[in-house]
Amino acid sequence: MKRMIALIAGIGTAGVMLGSVFAVADPPSQSPSSTTSSPSTSGDGKEIFRFDTFGDEQLWTEVLQMQKVLPGVSPRTALSVGLKVDADALPADVIKAIQAGQVNLDDPAVTVQLLKLNAVIGVIGKVTGPNNHLATVGITCALCHSTVDDSVTTGIGRRLDGWPNRTLNVGAIVSLSPAVVDKTPFQSWGPGKFDARLQIFDGKRLVPLSSFTVPVLIAPAYGLKGVGFETYTGDGVISYWNNYVGVTQMGGHGSFSDPRIAISVKQMPDQVTPKLPALLNYQLGLQAPPPPAGSFDPAAAQRGQDVFNNAGGCARCHKPPLFTDVLNGPDPNVPFLHSPFEVGTDPAYAARSATKQYRTTPLRALWQHPPYFHDGSAPDLLAVVNHYNVQFKLGLNDRQKADLVEYLKTL
């Protein structure tokens, strides 16, 4: 028989918050332990992407001590910083109660119950004992690279794997840690951004890489098949970046080394590297979402395609069908890149990378993830077009620019 747990709900009556309790079943055992057998042995990249912490509790629990922080965070606060709740992990009665406004989203105890249900996307919390003690906290790939469809309410719905979580404020979350003394860099990031070049975790402590922070947008993890080099600066193939982030940023118990950036972390047993092939296979299967019906003007988009290929010169770098030229160099194993000054973008982030240059971003589901450019400096597609119209002296008129925007919405 399933052990039952209580989820506290609050119902407002005449301005007084009353408590009611309703029972929900324990969550299914779908979350693999970071220290038990790897789901990669069955090729289940989805399980790795969604539920595998790679043993990063060593950072989020032992160093950052988030298990002491989250029990004091209400669901409303958690949702406000972009954390998402998986509706498929919630019993039907709980979903109905949320939609009816009967769940007290201001009660931190509800946050712990959601963690116990394994319902907070990308956050794995081990809740123990009759008093629901949050013993450990770890994170997964899905924290940054999944969102929800808001089908229950804002921030609560069915998973959308691969979609960048552009409302997630990682910096605000990290700054809650009592172990973070200087919170200013993290608090400056804002929603949807992360700086993977500010510091690394070497398995024991956080090691500074830079005296200043340059956060970039969390990128989509869909539409990767055939792209080859999936980072803004083309440092390596997709699994290279998965390895870098899994070990040095998430804090996974594994190994990563790149002499180009003078980083070498070795931890055994390696709970990251053996899982990279299965993780990659799952990522490559994530399709870019098509534009919603009625979201663009078909006639204008058709004219815009002509601008893209001709007057705008966009296709010179954004070569169809992948809309990037990163594999168009003389050696397909070496990314074809562009200097920051060639494309008129900030050189600060590239300067801290292995290549010092930028890759032509493949255009995929542009309608879904504004703002644009690596640093989010273009708030919308018209701002992107205006940037290149000036940078390359294209001389596009307002009609051409508007048509081009409509075409970009289709990609």
Compose a concise summary of this entry.
The chain has helices at residues 45-51, 57-60, 66-69, 75-80, 92-99, 108-116, 142-145, 170-174, 184-187, 238-249, 276-284, 298-309, 340-343, 348-351, 381-391, 398-408; strands at 4-13, 16-25, 85-86, 123-128, 133-139, 146-148, 156-157, 159-161, 193-194, 199-201, 206-208, 216-217, 256-258, 263-265. It is α+β, with helices and mostly antiparallel strands and 411 residues long. A two-stranded antiparallel ribbon has the order 1-2. Strands 3-7 form a two-stranded parallel sheet. It has a two-stranded antiparallel sheet with strand order 4-5.
Notes on the protein architecture:
Helices cover 28% and strands 14% of the residues. Strand 13 and strand 14 form a beta hairpin. By secondary structure, it is of the alpha+beta class. The chain folds into 2 domains: 4-220, no CATH class; 298-325 and 361-408, Cytochrome c-like domain (Cytochrome Bc1 Complex, Chain D, domain 2, Orthogonal Bundle), CATH 1.10.760. It is built from 16 helices and 14 strands.
Q: Helices and strands in order, then pairings?
A:
Layout (H helix, E strand, L loop, with lengths): L3 E10 L2 E10 L19 H7 L5 H4 L5 H4 L5 H6 L4 E2 L5 H8 L8 H9 L6 E6 L4 E7 L2 H4 E3 L7 E2 L1 E3 L8 H5 L9 H4 L5 E2 L4 E3 L4 E3 L7 E2 L20 H12 L6 E3 L4 E3 L10 H9 L13 H12 L30 H4 L4 H4 L29 H11 L6 H11 L3
Parallel strand pairs: 3-7
Antiparallel strand pairs: 1-2, 4-5, 6-8, 9-12, 10-11, 13-14
Helix pairs in contact: 1-11, 10-11, 12-16, 15-16
